[in-house]
Write a structure and sequence with these properties.
single chain; binds 5'-deoxyadenosine; 13 helices; about 475 residues; Rossmann fold; binds iron/sulfur cluster; 5-stranded mixed beta barrel; globular; alpha/beta; Transcription Regulator spoIIAA
Length: about 475
Amino acid sequence: MNDVIELPVIGRVEEDELQRRLQEKKPGQKGVWIQTLGCQMNEHDSEIILGMLSQMGYVEVATPVEADLILYNTCSVRENPERRVYGQLHMLRQLKERNPDLIIGICGCMVQQKAELERIRQSLEHVDLVFGTHNIHRLPELLHKVRVTGERVIEVWHEEGDVVEGLPVQREGKLKAYVTIIYGCNEFCTYCIVPYVRGKERSRAMEQILAECRSLGEQGYKEIMLLGQNVNAYGNDLPGGENFARLLDEVNQVPGIERIRFTSPHPKHFTDDVVEVMARAEKVCEHVHLPVQAGSDRTLRRMGRRYTREQYLRLVEKMRAAIPDLAITTDIIVGFPGETDEDFMETIRLVEEVEFDGAFMFIYSPRIGTPATRLKEQVPEDVKRDRIYHLIEVQNRISRKKNEEWVGRTVEVLVEGVSHKDPSKLSGRSRQNKLVVFAGGQELIGKTVDVRVVEAQTWSLSGELVG
Ligand code: 5AD
Ligand code: SF4
């Protein structure tokens, strides 16, 4: 999850610097500055948005002052990123005053909520363009309308349409690619806004997915991340008996692709045939992100997760027995309404028992319209905070321990580039999705190499190139 956005330059750029930058832009070229919050689904939507904008002559720029179009692709899963978007959009008023031709747009999950849409309409009158998650493909037409009429255009669909294929994509990297396999979610976990803003489950046709994967293989992509809010519900809504296990098997045949990952599966849908394909298909990586959310049966039931602690633990056991060196990561929410100290300690005990390689840990955030907001016994903020600190401390210790188990072993690393932390080194991911940092020449970028792990940190491994 990428909740952090920064608006570094607003208010600090001098007027003459702004004028200089605006004059520098090549004639006919337009700049877009896009901010993406939330999950990989949103990141991929932004890649599609940039694909469409690129066909309209837009190039991505590094700062909002250089932009002719500023777009916020928003997230509603928790309150914090929403608050930030409002804060930033209010600040953009100044920029719009200085550059009246600037178009400001907002899209993504936030605008799918009727109350937020109304708030945007009322309080952000300098926002020119609003579109939702179901009509991204309409962007070129909507943007054209704003440009021609100079008027504000708001178009949000509250019903999902058919899956739209064939949209252009401007991918962020050249090695790893996102491929959506299923849109929406039918689970309606009681805390979660996603089913309301992303609609019901709609699987893409398997042939379409495979055609995209083959094309990625031909373009030199090495790794595919199959995406869906509930990725292993793939095929349930299709007539032909397609399912997630079969899809994994098929993607495993795609030439050029070396690694396959997926996110996020629901434990309840994790059938034995998927475990079996993961064990057998050599390109499917030894990593699963398996959101548990809570460790107490009482909380799981109230969350509407439809599995018990025991069932989750048995699934983990089964996967570990079938897939050697499997890394398991998870999502956990603390402070769900009615969570007692004892319930929370059950979560801690589950975390200790499973020993996750890593976890995204969240404080429960009430989302208007979801059933959990109506539950009595909301947990006080200070209790939630104490619990998250406690959980983070336990998990960090475990993450480090799990990483230490790799010291002395050799891992296969897909080299992604120069390390952000230490530009004299390279970095990449092991099949277990561990970040590995090591010394090597830049010609290795894009290659798969063997690295012997020398040292473990909480969030990464350091090693030496082998051979
Ligand atoms: N509050 C806190 N965390 C949430 N998530 C989803 N909804 C909420 C909420 N209302 C978390 C879940 C999910 C992840 C993507 O976000 O852990 O798996
Ligand atoms: Fe939200 Fe539950 Fe669906 Fe995940 S499975 S997107 S948590 S409703």
